[in-house]
Amino acid sequence: MSIHNNTAPRILLIPGAWMGEWIWEPTVDQLRAQGLEAASLTLGGLEPGAVAHHVSSVRLERHVTQVADVILEWPDRPVVLVGHSYSGIVVGQVADRLPDRVISSLHFDSFLPINGRSLIDDWGSDPAERARERSDIENGHGHPFHWAPPPPQALELEPGLTPQDRKFLLKRFTPHPGHTVLDPVRLDRPVTQQKALFVASAATNIPAVLRTPDAATWDIRIMDSGHWPMLERPRDVIELITELVQSLD
């Protein structure tokens, strides 16, 4: 039986691209079993069975305000935000808008927001790759502004995933709202001024923006895993979240 902690910050875990709150459900359950208040949510356009028109209509601002609105419904305690991959763009903007409510963030292999730039602006290794990805999203293979999920071949390149993990992801993935990765970020202050922990799957995956003296309020850890640590190393993910929350309590 867990003992509920009424003083610890609440934890809100935001899914990355192509996923809903289901990706964080086991993590949320374990955090709650430890007496922490944790929740996740499915971002707009990623609901099961979302129709094509709805997916293509969702903008980045919708995701940011959706998360901010949840936090504003919790006026009694501060919040720790947890992001993964795409959702780091969302988490960073919410933390910027609600600095008095979001006391820290934790990013697992996240893209980080840079004012005036979109996720695709920092995608891939060269301009040609970024241009191809942008074109694929805009055309959507029949559904404009749909970002297609990774194909099975891409998941085969993730050695930390079991065959069951791959089947699980492929069955649950849904097209991601394309505008959210094409829209530019809006920040009042650089993300480097936030208090946060970045967990990279390898040293080469630490964002360039954190490789500067300006990011003095960021802690950086390396977790030897692939891109889905909540599946590959669930205990370590839970321990990191718990450690961060306890350090703030």
Automatic annotation (TrEMBL):
Protein name: Alpha/beta fold hydrolase
Domain AB hydrolase-1: 11-239
Listed InterPro entries: AB_hydrolase_1, AB_hydrolase_fold, Sec-Metab_Biosynth_Hydrolase
Annotated source species: Kocuria gwangalliensis
Keywords: Hydrolase
Matches recorded under PANTHER family: AB HYDROLASE-1 DOMAIN-CONTAINING PROTEIN-RELATED, ESTERASE_LIPASE_THIOESTERASE DOMAIN-CONTAINING PROTEIN
Single GO MF descriptor: hydrolase activity
Keyword Nucleotide-binding: no
Lineage: Bacteria, Bacillati, Actinomycetota, Actinomycetes, Micrococcales
